[in-house]
Amino acid sequence: MALCAALLWLPAAVAWGQDASTPSGPSVLDEIKARGELRVGLEAGYMPFEMRDKRGGIIGFDVDLAKLMARKLGVRLTLVNTQWDGIIPALLTGKFDVLMSGMTITEDRAKQVDFADPYIIIGQSVIMQPKLAATVHGVDDLNKPEYIVATKLGTTGDTAAAQYMPRAQIMKFETEAEALLQVRSGRAHAFVYDLPYNAVYMARNPGTLAHLSKPFTREELGWAIRKNDPRWRAWLNDFLAGAHRDKAYDALYGKWFERTAWLKLVN
After folding, report:
1. Closest listed residue to residue 62, CA positions, set 96, 28, 36
2. Please, what are the domains in the chain?
3. Which of 108, 150, 152, 204 could form a disulfide with 182 if both were Cys (CB 3.0 to 4.6 A apart)?
4. Mean pLDDT of 140-158
């Protein structure tokens, strides 16, 4: 059974890994090839996109895409684990070449970085205390002063909670785990966050909480790069198009979103 049946992915239409007909000025693409290393920024805590396995390594959907990307470039891959609240500044200061961490494309973020074409579409969903299942059927039902809603600081879950539940009491935390703990312990009524993470949590913890699994937002996720680098952006778009065309993307999507064998690898 699919963990995230409501997820979508976007078709692309150009050749895999070919240099596009864009301006030939200096590019991160040249730096990557010269150093023989692709540096990818992420925060290892967003299942199933990137997370720690039992041995302390980082695995996930984005990680496998990054590995495939590095192979196409003919370079080694280095993952740069970075706290979410500093991940865009780290990209802008050159700590890594591309941000691949399940980031939603927003207007505010697009003022700071450029995004490659969206590679998946998700939405926000709600995990809540089981006792609420009989009376809470959507976000409108949670939009009341008596409800406490937890989410992760600086994410689109944070933004969605404020937008759709302005009358509720919003609690913001540094990590998803901290926010979910509030619901499990009874200190919050609900948790608002991305559908993939919530679906994985419910698959790992069946019967513990209730899940309103129909997403109430639509969000395009994209890989972020520093601005004014059309060659690097074009290469990433070509790479994504080719991964769709030769079904490499489909294989990875099936591994991480439609099957659960990987759950035994994580804590």
Report:
1. 96
2. 28-121+219-265 (3.40.190.10), 124-212 (3.40.190.10)
3. 150
4. 96
